[in-house]
Structure prediction request, 167 residues.
Amino acid sequence: MGKKSIFIGCLICFVWQNAIGQSAFEEKLRSLYRNTVPLITVEQLKNDLQKNKGVILLDTRALEEYSVSHLPNAKFVDYQKFKQHDLDTLDRQTPIIVYCSVGYRSERIGEKLMASGFKNVKNLYGGIFEWVNARNPVVDNDGRPTLKVHTYNKNWSQWLLKGVKVY
Prediction:
């Protein structure tokens, strides 16, 4: 077997494993989501952020996770201690994107926002994991680019394919 055949075989195996991993991740997301908050894809969010400076990003993870990294300009709102009145000064039409590790906790916060009258709330599909897996930037608490992402725990870290896992 020549080097070219080995290379092609390895390439096919790599593509196959990534496809299986991605479909497993999508299956996991389907099992977690209630579909009560409209979803926004990573690509849609990137486009929205480029076009509309008024988009507010809310990171709904724990402070320990947020402190490792978060999307640039995201505001911290603790899932466990979320207080809607902290957002009462915002116009109810403001475009708000909520996210967490994969989208479960952010969907719960999104539900609360919608119940309190916010009209333009979306949940980032796949959360920060999908954002980083698509090679988009995250920053640390000082606003510096980082490759680190808090993966909640070792079990959840399997869904982060890019970046440096922290838990």
User: Anything to note?
Assistant: Confidence is low (pLDDT under 50) at residues 7-20. Residues 22 and 59 are 23 Å apart (CA to CA). DSSP finds five helices and nine strands in the chain.
